[in-house]
Amino acid sequence: MITPPRDARVRAGIWLLGFLIVGAVVGPWIAPGDPVSINDVMGTRLKPPFATGERGAIHVLGTDAFGRDVLGRVWIAARLSLAVGVAGSLLAGALGVLLGALGGWVGGVVDRVLLAIGDAMLAIPRLVLLLVIAALWGPGLPTVVTVLALTGWMGVARLVRADVLGVRIQPYVEAATALGVPSSRLLVRHVLPNALGAAVVAITLGVGNAILLESGLSFLGLGIQPPAPSWGNMIAGGREWLLIAPWIALAPGIALVLTVIACTLIGDGLTRGGPASVDERARS
Amino acid sequence: MRHTLPRLVDALFLLWLVATLTFLLIRLAPGDPASLLVSPTASVAQIAAQRAVFGLDGSLLEQYGRWLGALLRGDLGTSLALSRPVSSVIVEALPLSLLLGGVSLALSVIAGVGVGGWQARRVGATSDTITTVITTALYAAPSFWLALALLVIATSGPAVFGAPAWMRLPAFGVHTPAATLSGWPAIVDVARHAVLPVLVLTLTGAAAIARYARSAIAEAWRAPHVRAAVARGLPSRALRRRYVVRNAIAPIVVLVGLALPGVVAGSVFVEQVFAWPGLGRTMLQAIASRDYPVVLGLTVLYASVVIAANLVADVVAQSLDPRRRPA
Fold it and tell me: In chain B, which residues have their Cβ closer than 8 Å to the Cβ of A121?
């Protein structure tokens, strides 16, 4: 059933994302020196890009203030950032599918309450919501993923709800009801599979957004905590060396931009006519 | 107006819901602000007294009632960390944020619609593809990183290339420290400080708008009545003004309303990087010092701006495009 995607943007996005994932898996192994631990600080720190390090290894993106290879750290951070982005977006999507299907299927008061809560949460800029929750519940990896899920479900829930409402009046659903299929089975087997198309696209688009938000939180010190490297906290850490060694802060940002471009290309291609629905794009 | 009133009621209900959700979110969080803000040796009685001062005594429902009542009277409470009214904290920071946000939003719309409209006439051409790559990259770039990159260029760039000193833009704050300027030089000083933050916000904002404007305007050009007008030989200026812009403007107005949270989010980072003491920076400081009334007040303020902007955008879009009016 899987055919190669015809849209050039989707193909380009998948290649780019594939490159980043391969880099995240094998990059840390082939980086010169240990990107995590600190060795001879005075001798190895703040080397510019393409400088030769110990034993002739080349630091393609230079070294940081502790003499660690920047490219190696970018790849290690890629593991965390990509994983958090995918996990955050998937969890948000799962919550959105659950609540959207619940509202659309049950209807009535439940639906109206869920809609109102979703609208209220959409009215608060997502970053503000993220900042408040992350700060109050204490920063860290589990908080970041939870918070991304709690603040990202509304768009998916709207899409799923609308599709469930559309599907439930289809003749085949009516036929299944007439045959006596129980309501829960009807929802899971007949309605949901036909109401997930738009949600899958929204979740894909949400990955790039989640990665951006995680990096933002980590940049502000409310996300992934050092020494665990994430692109956001690497940029924050490179800030003090900005004018002496700009590569420390700029390199992780380039990885971040490439990742989000890949996700945007795939999302654009999947929604065909260009930028996706306006809701998804107002990144906040 | 007939269509506006029910929306206004909806918007007020939404605002109440936002305020309530935010209140619950903050009050149900672990940690007790009263015990955080008294001295470590304080007795139980002193903590209780402090709690009463902060309005944190009584049941959650009582606190909520008091807070909502005060909110309706326009009283946002007193900042725990700064010991002054939250409203005065906000009033102090608001003009600075409005300056950044307003200027950059206006520039973003002009640049974004301009670039998008220019691309819409040459969809598929090499120049269009290159522009799309640039706008996509800018759209993907986190504003704090873009801010740092620009900072490197603006501070060390002119020095490396031997540019005159006036081209080196200040990167931190609003005023030159210790400078006693007044009148015109003071305005120029603030404007020079605003260049970099406005540039960052404009680049990201314009990229987002251009991406959308391109497809909206291209779609308007493809509409049958526009193609018929092209076939009839209407001059392209009249075409653009009377046929294309009229059809593309409504979705763009809605987009600008929806882009506002993005401007807010961007300004949090940009204000942080450039040490610009606006609302975003105030919010970050309040969060760091667990200043609950300020966090609550600012969240409600942000949400009301977003709700109001969406409402205005919808109403404007409806007045521009009758097809959007409810039957």
Answer: 21
Chain B, window 40-99: residues with a beta carbon less than 8 angstroms from a chain A beta carbon: none
The closest alpha carbon to B296, from A128, A160, A46, belongs to: A128
Q: pLDDT tens, B282-323?
A: 888 888 887 888 888 888 888 888 888 888 888 887 887 777
A281 touches B at CB < 8 Å: yes
**How far is it, in rounded angstroms, from Cα A223 to Cα B95?**
30
Residue B310 distance to chain A (closest CA, Å): 9
pTM for the predicted model, two decimal places: 0.83
Query: Cα–Cα distance between B143 and B123 in angstroms, integer?
Result: 28
Record: contact B21-A135, CB cut-off 8 A: no
As for the ipTM of the complex, it is 0.81
Interface mutation target, options B144, B150, B312, chain A, most CBs of A under 10 Å: B144
CB-defined contacts A:B, below 8 A: 160
Nearest CA in chain A to B307: A123
